[in-house]
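Q: Start with the shorter request: fold the first protein.
A: Done. Sequence, then structure:
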Amino acid sequence: MYVASEATEENLKHVDSLLRHLGLGYITVNENRAEEIFPPGANTRFNQREFQLQVHAKAALLLAAREVFGKENFQFGRADEPSKVWVSSLEACNISSSYNSEEKNNFWFCLNLEKEAVRRVFNTLNPEDFYNFLSKLPSDYIFWIAKIESYRPKKYVDEQSTSVPDITLSKIRKCIDTMQSWGWQAHIQVRRKTHLDNIAKEKIVSELNKSIADLSSLQEHMSTVLRR
């Protein structure tokens, strides 16, 4: 990476050492001429561990999501908490993944539904059908619900979760009643946590595709309810 300006080499002395310290090269530009004064080098402040936590993992997740969802069906965010990033497809009932550098190499993969979409789905969704879909999922999935107090930034005031092996029809009915008592100001996810020892785009692509395969029937069913 270079910095370019009209400052000549003689006028650069007060920032020369800083640019070199940061690993930045310098180009001087004057009228129709550009000249490299010195090339980029190693950044002496570079921290490999922080790079892996704060940059590498997030970049791998973003690239994987773009590959799986496609650039026209892809969104991401989490500027309110720099340690976190989330990605998802654009549907109201979408597949999503998130990463928090504070949790090291753990990634969440889930089916995601929020606010108005929650009301529209669970006002009409048959609890027995929903239970049947959940009960067929792999045992590492969790059914999670939370009450949304504020949306931007998102703040929760209540959270409940049940692992797939512990799910019963009565618990599903109770969760639906709870969300209704919240006025449907709810966020739900059917999700699993996966630890990746070596973070790479290809591994995240594989995990995203696995979740899509696991959750496709439930996603299609809930999307059908939303389209009614």
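Q: Next, the second protein, separately.
A: Sequence, then structure:
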Amino acid sequence: MIVKELTEESEVMDAKAVCDKRAGKTSDRDFSKYSGDVPLRGYKASPVKIWMNDDELDTNGKYVKDIRIEVSIDALKSYFNLK
């Protein structure tokens, strides 16, 4: 996981708007409350690897065990039309 503090006003306010929308709140547009050395700073976390759960079956289709399968981040971005 790569984590980066958001410092640009546009990044901070965009992230704040997304979080407020999810919480059903009105977005506070005061950048000074979320920048500098204040407790309410924003961060962006970007995964380096992603996995999903799956199962392994024997030749008769009977469950054997749970397994994790790596998901391609590029394929996932492409699927959702992301950069």
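Q: Describe the second briefly.
A: The CA atoms of residues 53 and 68 lie 5 Å apart. The chain has a mean pLDDT of 91.
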